[in-house]
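Closing statement on the fe (ii) ion sub-project.
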Amino acid sequence: MGDKMNRRAFLGYTAAGAAGLVLGDLIGKAEKAGSVSTQVRTESSPKAGERVSFYGAHQAGVVTPQQNCANVAAFDVTTDNRSELQQLLRTWTEMAAALMDGQPLAAEPQDAKFPPKDTGEQMGLDTGKLTLTFAVGASLFEKDGNDRFGLRARKPAGFTLMPKFHLDSLQEQLTHGDLIVQACADDPMICFHAIRNLAIAARGVAHLRWQQTGQLGVKSEGTKRNLFGFKDGTNNPQLSDESFMNNNIWVGASDGAPWLAGGTYMVVRRIQMRIETWDQQTFAAQEGIIGRQKVSGAPLDGKQEFDQPNFGADPGGKQTPLDSHIRLSNPRTGENSERERILRRGYNFMENLDSVGRINAGLLFVCFNRNLQTQFESIQKRLANPKQLDQLMKYTDTTGGGYFAVLPGVQAKGAYLGQSLFA
Ligand SMILES: C=CC1=C(C)c2cc3[nH]c(cc4nc(cc5[nH]c(cc1n2)c(C)c5CCC(=O)O)C(CCC(=O)O)=C4C)c(C)c3C=C
Ligand SMILES: [Fe+2]
């Protein structure tokens, strides 16, 4: 959950709300069609604030510095008509560009005889640097042996449904999906509004399968903490490290699925945390489980948060246990460990008690990587290896999530999400 670089370097922000603000596409179209009179924006006008640009070679929401809130929503496609699916992606493209730019989805005044075209709960709110990130699941290419949309041949090798790893408790209604949208913003209402309106636009073509919200500590300085109280994201790659992103995160044209070049693979895991059990562990035991100091975030053999641990000097695991989380997730064995590295972008979730009165909270683990097998899976298999289990596994339970291919970015108006997939 690191956020170590200058935000402005990444945000194609505009100071909106200024006079002469260009009206959004959607309104523009409505005006051209003569359905609405030109007028000054009223209540639904966006407030001034930083915006993240929707357009670019890569989608936003991957190397964008983390906003405070997330709402991740997976959809099942209900049509078997390829054109309807393409049309949905075109519609979502226009909507996403408008939403991220703080534009209302409907022209005013709206037609009183129909349900509102924009549900309206965002009126008067800042966009909170909203990003919307769209991805597809393996089931879009083929489901139950069916080549549903003539896309089977386009499925990248190695792109599967997320397998059940050792000790996973995946629940079908919280797992997989044909499409997924990650909405992130500094305001949970903004995320909710985006997902809700995208779902309305999908009616008859796709419906919500599962949804998970998450949040980070809002005003904390430096690396954010997870619900076990540890800094989470310390050894994440620097977001400004373009060469790392090109090597480890963005899919390349020569990776076997040229249509996905500029995209990436997103892993989502809804990880329930056994809060009550964790809270009974001693301070020292908690540090040994993670492999870092709780307050500073420093490695157990270091002093400062960003010191690098020296596992080579501690082969027996006296200082940093061999089965601690950081030692197993990154053993630091040279080139191989470097190639495996992923970009984590998770959020904490805190919900009501479960049916037996336990705290229902955890980590909405989200990570991005260029190759699912040689990166995420390789790490996850080490953590879940029954012969040397990550100590943290005793305190967590994964109940949902999935694997998704994040579509390449939309470079200019007129192009649409997934265009290269259908070309
Ligand atoms: C398979 C990937 C990972 C899962 C699943 C995962 C779950 C998980 N992690 C924490 C808490 C921390 N993780 C930390 C580091 C860390 N975790 C992973 C991978 C997974 N974690 C990696 C690759 C790393 C980086 C290791 C390194 O390079 O040193 C840390 C330490 C701070 C940091 O660098 O981020 C914490 C704390 C929880 C609570 C959790 C499941 C609920
Ligand atoms: Fe971790």
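Residues 1-46 have pLDDT under 50 and may be disordered. With this model delivered, the sub-project is considered complete and its resources will be redirected to Aim 3.
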